[in-house]
Amino acid sequence: xxxxxxxxxxxxxxxxxxxxxxxxxxxxxxxxxxxxxxxxxxxxxxxxxxxxxxxxxxxxxxxxxxxxxxxxxxxxxxxxxxxxxxxxxxxxxxxxxxxxxxxxxxxxxxxxxxxxxxxxxxxxxxxxxxxxxxxxxxxxxxxxxxxxxxxxxxxxxxxxxxxxxxxxxxxxxxxxxxxxxxxxxxxxxxxxxxxxxxxxxxxxxxxxxxxxxxxxxxxxxxxxxxxxxxxxxxxxxxxxxxxxxxxxxxxxxxxxxxxxxxxxxxxxxxxxxxxxxxxxxxxxxxxxxxxxxxxxxxxxxxxxxxxxxxxxxxxxxxxxxxxxxxxxxxxxxxxxxxxxxxxxxxxxxxxxxxxxxxxxxxxxxxxxxxxxxxxxxxxxxxxxxxxxxxxxxxxxxxxxxxxxxxxxxxxxxxxxxxxxxxxxxx
Length: 426
Description:
alpha/beta
């Protein structure tokens, strides 16, 4: 008896409609895990840098020797413009310039100033690892110069001996030249400003998606969907009505969640940072684009949920269909937090673009960097995706799929019940 019950439950739950989404999501998780798992290898790799030594003193030679030993140097000469060109061409991380009088200033008890030109390609957390490795190289240069000063026994200020160099830095990020900030500081600013939207979109899609799919399963279980299909109402109106109602509920929940989460995030943000001073502030039209992207992404996610909900036989089977939506929303949010769209591998870039509700997650950071084409393209794609999903949903609603579990064109059973109902009323 127990074996028969187990077999019955297994057949009801282990179906193609529940297995296929889980397999797809497992493949996606594996790809993301491989990307994140390469962090250790990235940190162990030698960073690609360029060196311009215009001092040729004893301390500049110490600095150059440390850098050559611990980094992959693609340029070691005396021309800064050639060095920048070479580092950019080899996808390097930074160009370090040691100016004249570097060694002379250190001997005089003054900090030796280095000029650092950073090549920043992305603002994700994983994109900042190479610049962090170069920061470690600079600390190694400081340590080696301090050790030399101590060995020479020069009577200098101990505080200076422990920190004998200073720096001026310029960061090049996707066409922007940002003075005085390192990639770590810029990445922290961008992440703190753009982390709210991915989390809110993720929660919005999950909450609204769970509501739509679960309601479809519950309506089938309670036979209310059959009654709805017998009414003289266009199937497209039913689909749009379900989407509109769920969208309103989802936006209310998202607004409440956004308020609480934004208050939480402000406690970690520095209030004295003026993004406009670095050319990273958003204008009114930018916020309007973010709002439009969020709205069409919500519609795309809900239309996909309605299509998935048609495969639910009852409320219990609907719970399994919620998992793909939840997983895709979480994957999109975490991928965008870890990497920039432009620095992702091609396969993951295509996957991320194909997920319609990933675009508002990328919108704010993209607009800060004047990447309007990505945002506008995402809005157009999400709109087309919504239209396609609505067409598929209407086609399914016009068939017998919702009532019989099989796909037969024409909606014969639904029309037969509708006709009988009209005959009884007349």
